[in-house]
């Protein structure tokens, strides 16, 4: 939990100073949605784009869990399953 919190703090700082980007969302099937990471995009950016009304920290953690990520690092072209919003 401490490592995740530290990673989220660093990720938040990086995304605050980094370039703004938006997630490319595609509907992979009726039951899941996938985003393709764009160049310069962070997990924080993606979380904000897919659930702008939610707590971004919680969305980052949910994306990490859905994709079995062990860090918040993502690469351009990487496909990530994203959680469905409950709104």
Short description:
The chain has one domain (2-82). The chain is 40% helix and 14% strand.
Description:
- The chain has 87 residues and is of the alpha+beta class.
- The protein has one domain (2-82).
- 40% of the residues lie in helices and 14% in strands.
- It contains 3 helices and 3 strands; from the N terminus they run αββααβ.
- It has helices at 2-17, 43-50, 56-66, and strands spanning 24-27, 33-36, 79-82.
- A 3-stranded antiparallel sheet has the order 1-2-3.
- A hairpin with a 5-residue loop joins β1 (24-27) and β2.
- It is globular and about 30 Å long.
Describe this protein with a few key phrases:
87 residues, alpha+beta, three-stranded antiparallel β-sheet, 3 helices, 14% strand, globular
Number of helices: 3
The order of strands across the largest sheet is 1-2-3
Evaluate the radius of gyration.
Answer: 12 Å
What's the N-to-C terminus distance? 27 Å
- The global form is globular
**Could you tell me the strand content as a percent range?**
5-15%
Number of domains: 1
Detail the topology: elements first, then pairings.
Blueprint: H1 2-17, E1 24-27, E2 33-36, H2 43-50, H3 56-66, E3 79-82
Helix pairs in contact: 2-3
